[in-house]
Protein 1
Amino acid sequence: MLILILICALLLSCATRRPDLYREDGSSLSITDYEKIAQVERDNRRYENAIEVYSAIITNYSDNKTALAWAHYEVGFCYFTLKKYPEAEQYFRIVINEFQDPAAKKLAQDMIVKIGEVKEK
């Protein structure tokens, strides 16, 4: 029984641990690495961790407009999933107002409509 408890505690601690966002030398990961980590966090419903990873993309790759648009969209989506609608709407509006990626803009607009529908209930 003790072994089972220890195994469960180990699995739980690994499942909730924050992702590593930098290399051992302190340098940034590649955008691809960040996106992979963020997707794993999102797929495992660790939305706060995913927000942190997408925020690292925003911070470290401000010159990559496509990555920035999608990172902002994904942060908004995570906040929406967490039912933090004002924060979600803020990020979706950034996508709409500051970026030219048509697919990201369309999805952000759709999500703002969903937020409005949720608020009406």
Protein 2
Amino acid sequence: MKYAYANKKFKGAVTEMATSPKNIQERIGDAFINHLIHLEIEELPKKIRLKFSDMFQRLTKYEAVGNKGSVQATIDQISTDEAIEIAGNIVYMADILYSKLSDL
């Protein structure tokens, strides 16, 4: 199954965002670091590659500071509205991956 690994990673990311008691910035940061950061763009359907690339850039915008990596430095700077938008994009991409697997 072509997208099974990516689907598994996005499912983990969505579950983490939905069940964590942390704020939305921390939840998207954890979902990204723990599940999505190592996905390669080629592992994704073409329909979501641009959105994934945009998310990657948005969550690594700031350079690492001290013992904080670039993702942590970035989520410390983003607004709640931007974090909500990124979370929505993660859910959207997860849905596309799930539908691709359902089509097989």
Protein 3
Amino acid sequence: MFWWKNPKRSKFGKWLDKNGIQQTDFAMKSSVSRRTIWTICNDKNYIPSAAILKKVMDTVKGIDSSKQSKDFFDI
């Protein structure tokens, strides 16, 4: 199954897809490992650590300043 047809994609993964951002590109920009970004995109129940969350959200806000962590994670 192709990643863009994955019905189990998380809110964060769907946001990346909608904005045409590749996981590898986001991983490089955010300084978060590709494996962690893959997990965030494909595991709806994954809650990142505070340090990872900060890196991810700093990068997200550089793309869309209206987004908040609650838009992607149930924390």
Protein 4
Amino acid sequence: MDKLIKKLAKKYNLTEFKTELVIKSQFGLLKNVIENSNFKSVRLKHLGMFSVKKHRFKYYKDGKKRKV
């Protein structure tokens, strides 16, 4: 990951810190959408579709373990 950040920082004439923030910001947004909405799916351009299975989403929202 560090090599990618250095390469992109050099290419776009940015600091490595700012480049890392740009890269990580999309995952922060994804986390925010999952936590604060009725999450069905989210598409991140060039990375794909992210979705959660219904029973996993319920576990995530309720914080409860499923009985086996």
